[in-house]
């Protein structure tokens, strides 16, 4: 059987195949096209297969539409949950730009979102996730898929202090080690969804940029017990398998859908992995998401 992990990241409010310029100049993007891709993968999956859909953050900020909602029409905030539910995401992750409009705005946008994973951005008073939950276990077709949600801890270096007041940004790698140890005995598949990228070359480990805590994806790949890693933040197009662990990063504005396939034997052990990117520009918009 197969477990397929499909993902978007850094949609940045581009929900339609529309770059908001007139005349329309770019139609090879948009969540509405990504939904078509994800729906086709679901439709063509075998009855015993499992498809899990993840949005990896930076969803509610970045387009003229999202700026309009924030400045002019906050009554439309429930649209974000509606769009994510229509897309069929099983899991959602916080991105760094989710904080651009402030903590209260973010909390309002995520009201009643029970599939939000956030393991490392904590309330300084309680020490617990200030919103969301650290991980989930999805039971589907007798397979237990554990997911941990992480966000780059570098946010305080960019964000206005008023927007993140009362928050602690814990180290994603140390947080991952804690929750992987807790989850691993209870799941068949364990995936980390991390709104962050890679500061090192995936094959050689050589530094690609000044080494900070902004992009710790390479280090997360090395955490024992992780079966797959979904990344974002850098807007790169990445689909590789590193020491047996597949990883994806699906670009920007839903131009790609990441697809990680894990092949499981009868004992639910992973015996083969694959990672690819599917260009959404080759697909029509999903009518129900227009």
What does this structure look like?
- It is built from 6 helices and 14 strands.
- The relative contact order is 0.19.
- The model has no long low-confidence stretch (mean pLDDT 95).
- 20% of the residues lie in helices and 28% in strands.
- By secondary structure, the protein is of the alpha/beta class.
Key phrases:
6-stranded mixed beta sheet, 290 residues, globular, 6 helices
The string of secondary-structure elements, in order, is EHEHHEHEEEEEHEHEEEEE
Strand neighbour order, sheet with most strands: 4-3-2-1-13-14
Shape: globular
| Rg estimate, integer Å | 18 Å
User: Which strand-content bin applies to the residues?
Assistant: 25-35%
| Contiguous runs where pLDDT drops below 50 for at least 5 residues | none
What's the quick description here?
By secondary structure, the protein is an alpha/beta fold.
């Amino acid at each position: 059987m197969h477990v397929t992990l499909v993902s978007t990241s850094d949609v940045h409010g581009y929900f339609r195949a529309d770059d908001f310029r007139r005349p329309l100049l770019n139609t090879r993007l948009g969540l509405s096209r990504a939904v078509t891709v994800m729906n086709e993968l679901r439709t063509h999956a075998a009855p015993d297969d499992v498809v899990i859909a993840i949005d990896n953050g930076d969803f509610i900020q970045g387009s003229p539409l999202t700026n309009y909602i924030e400045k002019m029409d906050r009554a439309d905030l429930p649209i974000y949950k509606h769009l994510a539910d229509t897309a069929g995401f099983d899991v959602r992750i916080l991105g760094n730009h989710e904080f651009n409009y402030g903590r209260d705005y973010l909390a309002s946008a995520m009201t009643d979102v029970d599939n939000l994973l956030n393991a490392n951005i904590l309330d300084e008073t309680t020490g617990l996730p200030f919103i969301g939950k650290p991980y989930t276990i999805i039971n589907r077709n007798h397979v237990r898929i554990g997911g941990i949600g992480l966000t780059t801890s570098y946010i305080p270096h960019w964000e206005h202090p008023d927007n993140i007041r009362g928050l602690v940004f814990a180290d994603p790698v140390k947080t991952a080690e804690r929750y992987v140890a807790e989850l691993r005995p209870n799941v068949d598949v364990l995936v980390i969804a991390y709104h962050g990228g890679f500061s090192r070359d995936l094959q050689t480990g050589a530094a690609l940029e000044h080494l900070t805590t902004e992009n710790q994806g390479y280090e997360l790949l090395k955490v024992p017990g992780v079966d797959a890693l979904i990344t974002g933040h850098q807007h790169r197009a990445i689909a590789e398998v590193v020491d047996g662990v597949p990883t994806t990063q699906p670009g920007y504005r839903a131009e790609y859908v990441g697809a990680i396939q894990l092949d499981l034997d009868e004992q639910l052990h992973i015996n083969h992995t694959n990672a690819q990117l599917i260009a959404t520009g080759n697909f029509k918009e999903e009518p129900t998401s227009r």
